């Protein structure tokens, strides 16, 4: 009787599945995409150099974010949480606006985790400094390019969108505000 190689093939299959599950458990893949729509005149607030959706461009959406650890890597962006600011409507956690002089943040959808981090502090480390900030909003990674989202694209899945007070506390020069590699953790 000839060896059919079935045990070897089975072993390779198990090894492949194990590797695939391990890698899949550590990553967050796009869950879909939306197509950009042109905003009506004057409807996309470009405060803080915010991007406006481009007609016909595809934007990835996410329902997840990378796993949270004691040192979670993220990109710090700037957002105005004040009425009339580039953040759009009131904050998701309390349906209120917040002063740009208050250290508050919005987290990407996966980290926002269905409001489980609302009104909880996170510790942000960047530029050699630390700051505590209060989570008040979601940086929506699942939708965008509409009036509810100020005609801005969906957030990437690794964003901590921060008020001016956070940037000031980290000692980042104002002309460098906009995108900074940071780490964060629950406080």
Question: How would you sum up this structure, described in words?
Answer:
The protein is of the alpha+beta class and 187 residues long. Helix content is 17%, strand content 26%. The protein contains 3 helices and 8 strands, in the order αββββαβββαβ. It has helices at residues 6-26, 109-112, 164-169; strands spanning 32-35, 58-61, 72-78, 104-108, 121-126, 129-139, 159-162, 180-186. A 6-stranded mixed β-barrel has the order 3-7-4-6-5-8. The chain has a two-stranded antiparallel ribbon with strand order 1-2. A hairpin with a 2-residue loop joins β5 and β6. The N and C termini lie far apart (65 Å). The relative contact order is 0.22. Mean pLDDT is 86; it is low at 6-25.
- Quote the distance from N terminus to C terminus: 65 Å
Major sheet: 6 strands, mixed, barrel
Overall mean pLDDT stands at: 86
Spatial order of strands in the largest sheet: 3-7-4-6-5-8
The level of helicity is 10-25%
What string gives the helices and strands in order? HEEEEHEEEHE
Note the overall shape. Answer: globular
Secondary structural class: alpha+beta
What is the rounded Rg? 20 Å
Total of helices: 3
The counted number of beta strands is 8
Unreliable spans are 6-25
């Amino acid at each position: 009787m000839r060896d059919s190689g079935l045990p070897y093939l089975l072993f390779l299959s198990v090894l492949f599945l194990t590797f695939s599950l391990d890698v899949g458990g550590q990553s967050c893949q796009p869950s879909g995409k939306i197509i950009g729509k042109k905003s009506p005149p004057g409807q996309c607030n470009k405060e803080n150099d915010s991007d406006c959706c481009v007609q016909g461009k595809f934007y990835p959406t996410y329902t997840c974010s990378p796993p949270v650890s004691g040192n979670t890597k993220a990109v710090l962006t700037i957002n105005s949480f004040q009425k009339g600011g580039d953040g759009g409507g009131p904050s998701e956690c309390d349906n209120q606006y917040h002063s740009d002089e208050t250290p508050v943040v919005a987290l990407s959808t996966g980290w926002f985790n269905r409001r489980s981090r609302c009104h909880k502090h996170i510790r942000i480390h960047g530029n050699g400094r630390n700051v505590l900030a209060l989570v008040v909003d979601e940086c929506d990674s699942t939708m965008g390019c509409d009036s509810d989202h100020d005609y801005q694209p969906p957030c990437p899945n690794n964003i901590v969108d921060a008020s001016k007070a956070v940037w000031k506390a980290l000692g980042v020069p104002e002309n460098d505000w906009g995108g900074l590699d940071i780490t964060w953790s629950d406080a």
